[in-house]
Amino acid sequence: QVQLVESGGGLVQAGGSLRLSCAASGRTFGTYAMGWFRQAPGKEREFVATISRSGVNIYYADSVKGRFTISRDNTKNTVYLQMNSLKPEDTAIYYCAQRGSSGYYFDSRNYDYWGQGTQVTVSS
User: Which of 45, 42, 36, 12 is nearest to 121 (CA)?
Assistant: First the structure.
């Protein structure tokens, strides 16, 4: 049984920073790519960032490029999302997910396990 548990969300002022963590258990962490998605109220879930198994290949949504950094520590079975220069439009529930299928990295259908989400609220 795979479990993904996010933490690190909260309320922050615009321009501030947060670091999200996602601890994984249940299958060999280092053999799966990981991703972060987010969902704002009234909107569809959208891709934020993904990192390959080894951490070599990383991709970001254009909306967060240059502000967010995804990383992973395979010795700790954890993936991180460092979020800097936060904007009110970054407000959403952030989910980490484990990619079990090949295909487009930005397509949520290629991720087969999801965390429960952590709320990020950015005030103006």
Answer: 12
